[in-house]
Hints:
alpha/beta; Glutaredoxin; Serine Threonine Protein Phosphatase 5, Tetratricopeptide repeat; 3 domains; 5-stranded mixed beta sheet; 9% strand; elongated
Amino acid sequence: MEFGQKAPGAAGPGGDVIKDTTTAGFMKDVIEASRAQPVIVDFWAPWCGPCKQLTPILEKVVRAAGGKVHLVKINIDEHPAIAQQLRVQSIPTVYAFLDGRPVDGFAGAQPESQIKAFVDRLVGDAGAADLEHAIAEGEKAFEEGDLQTAAEIFAAVLQEEPDNIKALAGLARCYLKTGDLERAEQTLELAPPDKRDAAPLASVRAALGLAKRGQESGNLGELKTKVEANPADHQARIDLATALAANGEKEEAVSHLLESFRRDRKWNDEAARKQLVELFEAWGPKDPATLDGRRRLSSLLFS
């Protein structure tokens, strides 16, 4: 199923988007159903005058939403248990459910404009939740090495929300992982100017800069030979660490930078420490190499 499409069997305008329920049917019709789309519950009774004003407006606005939200009506005279559990004190009372729990509501008759705003807000919240779920799936695919799936998910999110920072960062990371530095940079440039310094983008930008410098640092074998020949050659050691990091050899990169820092902390304006900090930013605060590197750096700083 493509992102943004209705799930198979989802209701269209009218039809199943509006129904009556009972105490026994509440779990299926509201709690379970709200995991697929928002569900509005209208608590009413036949003798209630304001209910007769509100319910037709609710039905009209829900139908106009085209299946993005459902309406479930429950007669509290015939089925009082749910209303009692939710502490409904007067009718009409309306609750909105999303992901199995109440997220919004109101009591009393409302004009159509306010009902529409209520539904729009609910649909917007559901849409945002869908995007966050998709991004989480994309990040999971990325961590598992399924770059194709991850990139497709992030791209689908961007079709729905072109300035989504997490999706832009995720897609750029996919390009970066495949070595396509140009497209990674182009993806980062799609971020709005006021969001380009956001943490997810800053992390990818740091990783991109690291990858570029890694390409410029030279051949790994040659750099290793230079360091072995002269362990005090700080520039060669830092170049080697940069190339190793760009090659995904994080632990060895950290070790070389720490060794340079241990030998001469102040060399080239603390170049080794600054390079370490940049690596940590590129890898992210939760990366095992970042956590271990920070611990080892702290030990040196306070030794």
